[in-house]
Amino acid sequence: MTQTEATQDPAGMTVVIWVSEGTWRGCVDAARRILPFNARIVLLHVTLADIPAAAHGAYAGLLGRGHPERDPGTRVSALAAEAAAELLEDASRRLAMPCTRTERHGRVEREVVAAADGADLLVAARDGDRSRLGPKSLGPATRFVVDHAPCAVLLVWPEAPPVVGTIPPRPGPPRHGPHHR
Amino acid sequence: MPWSSTAEWVGGPALNAVAAEAVSVAAFVVVLAWAVARPRGWPEAVAAVPAAIALVAAGAIFPAVAVAEAQRLAPVIGFLAAVLVLAHMCDDEGLFRACGAWMARLSAGSARRLLVLVFMVAAVTTAVLSLDATVVLLTPVVFATASRLDVRPKPHVYACTHLANSASLLLPVSNLTNLLAFAVSGLAFGRFAALMALPWLAVIGIEYLMFRRFFAADLDAGGQVLAEARPVEVPVFALVVVACTLAGFAITSAAGVNPAWAAFAGAGVLSVRALAQRRTTPLAIGRAAAVPFLAFVLGLGIVVKAVVSNGLGSAIGLLIPGGEGLPALLATAAVAAVLANIINNLPAVLVLLPLAAPASPGAVLAVLLGVNIGPNLTYAGSLATLLWRRIVHQHGPGPSLREFTKLGLLTVPAGLVLAVLALWGALHVIGG
Q: Distance between CA atoms of B175 and B54, rounded to whole angstroms?
């Protein structure tokens, strides 16, 4: 199915909503507003392998401590699994539409792109510095996802979108009238 | 130089110097390899203690020298055990849970404010209750706190792992490396802390600035104010005991008494209370004291003593300039940081201390800057690929080494230089 066909017949469309800490509410709210009730929605969360690994590494660096059961990486892994399940549960409740949940592990940007394979739409949020609008309003992982997603991407603001007036005036001498470009 | 002292320096009459050095280095490599690989999950001491005994038996180190080294290390190890128990009991009392609840409330859902709080809590925890407490007890709490606030936990967890090393400069109890150095430095507890306060603050400041930049995107993603703020139950008793223990360190040391007694008293009070309230068992307290770890340190210490005194010491000694001039301190800290990244900072400090101690207290503290800040440069403080492979093998995908090293390159050289400058300044103002 091509992308055009998918958007013409939204009833069967598969939509992946990327649920990420701090910004997921914007994605879920946009999906609720825009998607038809019978869309096949997948809530996706990616747990960073880096975080438990950093804790494992810190403990391994303490030479001689033994006690693998004290390794904080194991505890952090367990907490991460719990946190991910809770996050997806919260997202599902807020969405209040039929959906499935997917939890992946590894490098965020690559896992999101892989999960979007075969989908018609990926919903992602701006997660960078939104106080200065521009390229930096996308974090590096989101930038990667937007650039490499194998489907259309709906990019939402996690908070209220900026008004047009926030665009700085064009540099150079003042221009008059809409015909000056 | 009389022959007898030369013989002692060389290590003993049973082996010639070259053979003794070769045997000692081989034993050292075996001890480290075992500690990294931990075959069958057996404790590190299983190799370290027999290796030390074997070196004595083979004549690579005089029995009297080995015994003297053990006698020197024993109080340090006892001190360490007391600090480990103290931290464990504080955890039992709910100190770290309280820290988590406190950070959650004060951060008001801001990832950046949470980072400030994590920096404060991790720096103080490391300084007072040692880096083990930060790595083992605080890190999971910080992760859980960030998750509760819907904040991306990566910067905050990485802050714990970094500060466990770099914020372990302040007090002799902050790190085993410090305890070992403290024992040979001749400094009083208060003077040690006074000299290290500025370097400690400088390194934390650099780490904070770099973290803000490096993790800008994660911090920008934001967070959520807690819907229902749980009340923070402050473990007042544990906090008072820790405060008294800290005061006890300064007082005992000033009075010429080993400050380890203050640590014993603090750990003892919390243990007795927990036992009386049936919240813990003697076995759990014994486990917190980590006896196999203490035996490992003892064995490793004797093996390193053999390695250093059979000739390697004079070779590495050439790299330690001695003196308290700025270039000498910088060179000493750099050598220590590099060695810590090659053989891990615990063996590194054991190797370097006998060389730096005769020079000056300043040189000893410069070694500490190197071995404490340096390990952040490489994942797991190195022993390099061996360890890396083992961890990858055991726990699935590892972290992005590129990212980890990039963060290390941003924080470690700058932190090290600034800390040395601060130490140099402190030595001039306060005096070694």
A: 29
Residues of B in contact with A52 (CB under 8 A): 395
Give the closest of B154, B222, B297 to A51, CB-based.
Answer: B154
Of A24, A49, A60, the CB nearest to B380: A60
| Whole-complex ipTM | 0.86
Compute the distance between CA of residue A96 and CA of residue A86 in angstroms, rounded to an integer.
Answer: 15
Cβ-Cβ contacts under 8 Å between A and B: the total is: 158
Asked if A109 reaches chain B (Cβ–Cβ under 8 Å), the answer is no
First to last CA, chain A: 39
How far apart CA B32 and CA B303 sit, in angstroms, is 11
Query: What does each C-alpha distance from B127 to B7, B167, B235 come to in angstroms?
Result: 41, 7, 19
Per-residue tokens: B421:
């400058």
Centre a 10 Å sphere on the Cβ of residue B224 and count the other Cβ atoms it contains. Answer: 16
pTM greater than the 0.95 cutoff: no
Interface test with A, best of B36, B112, B150, B341 (most A CBs within 10 A): B150
**Vertex A137, ends A124 and A47: CA angle to 5°?**
45
- Which residues, given as ranges, of chain A have pLDDT below 70? 1-11, 173-181
Find the angle CA(B296)-CA(B301)-CA(B305) to the nearest 5 degrees. 150
A135 to chain B, any CB pair closer than 8 A? The answer is: no
Residue B358: both structure tokens together:
């005769």
DSSP E strands in A19-167: the ranges are 40-48, 99-106, 121-125, 152-156
